[in-house]
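Lecture 7 notes: from sequence to structure.
We start with the chain below.
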Amino acid sequence: MNSFRKKILANGTRILDLTVMAAALYFTLILHTSYLPQRFFKAILSARIQLADLILLILLAIAWNRLFAFFGLYTVRRLDDRLKEWFDIFKAVTAGTVVFAFLTLLLSPSDLHKNGFFTFWLVAIVSTLSARTLVRQGLVFLRRHGRNLRYVVFVGSGPRAVDLAQKILNRRELGYRLVGFVDDQPQNTRLWQGRWLCTLDAFPDYLTRHVVDEVFIALPIKSYYEQIRRIAHFCGELGILCRVPSDWFELKTARTSAYELDGVPMLTIHSSTQQQLNHLWMKRLMDVALAGVGLLVLAPLFIIVSAMIALTSPGPVFFRQQRVGYNRRRFSMYKFRTMVSNAEAMQSALEHLNEADGPVFKISNDPRITPIGRWLRRTSIDEIPQLINVLRGEMSIVGPRPLPLRDVNGIYEHWPLRRFSMRPGLTCLWQINGRNRLHFYEWMKLDLKYIDEWSIWLDLKIILRTIPEIIKASGQ
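Predicted structure tokens for the same chain:
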């Protein structure tokens, strides 16, 4: 299953919860009032539904969504057991029913009595539990068949680390894939289904070069406190999820949340706020909608540009290049070809002409660019095929630009690497704050500023401010 489908499955629970709530409300009104179903549908078809009822529905939907988010039902719950999720659902639905009763009595007086509220509560509880169980079982099925996996590293190789690895990896429904163990002196020669990766001091460098989604720390606290603190701090800087067995860290760059695994309390350290984590599904939904509409609307331009490239320069229409994306995952990024077909092979001979600072490569009058390619770059039309990457879930509309492997390998400082904690995008703050005139590390600071301040409103603001930049044709 591709990343797009995984995101739809993982984040569609909000829509599912609202659908279940609406169905419970509909069923309750049928049983306990004379208003539905005939009068309700007639009112909708004739556009005469009462304003108070409409306000009630909107407020109830908002409250339902907020309550489910408040009780943590839209956070990652791989390590939670089913009973804990059920109890959180019970609390959220109960609170939602109280809100429903209050809003009904305040805004929409009807013949609905206390038995009706009890029916709504009971139907909502059963329906939500059933729907969430089906979703959980669907995710379990996917993970058992190698989909939606998380790559995990264990820091430590003693009995505690091996025992923790056994607990996690024996539960295939959690969807973890063991990368290996990190320790100065591996204490277990077999390392239980894993391999020794590197020493503790070399681990930060390993994280910057490999795909790692989560780090579990299982070292003795007293003797390794400083190393544990340093590793947890570094994971926070890179935006990598870090789980530790206690809450004795004070990290300025990270937030924490608690989980429990088979009776073992685990502290999760992450670099995003809870509000940002809760709203990522909206970002993905906006990405899919905008990319889908964009590809449909721009289909004629696709054909015209493809013909222009094919007629003016020998070689393929599209250019594919390996880029580094979310958590250092590599993917093939698509662009309209703007250079001669052997441009990458020619780059080494042009390195002495590089005008950019830092590890990036940029020449204002690059001899490899074709005449039509220069126009495509100025207008940013060459970037349009990346909408395909957005639909595939490899990129976002707004996010740090994906860097080529060459550029990433040239970053020797650690602080810019936190840019990989968010999906790369077509545009970002750099696009509307100087673009190609920016120095490399100014560009990196803008990427981190975007990650720290991210919101849906910021994305919309960047998209709107990018349009004039495209019209001005200031690209290279």
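Points to note: The chain is about 50% helix and 15% strand. Confidence is low (pLDDT under 50) at residues 1-6, 40-49, 247-253.
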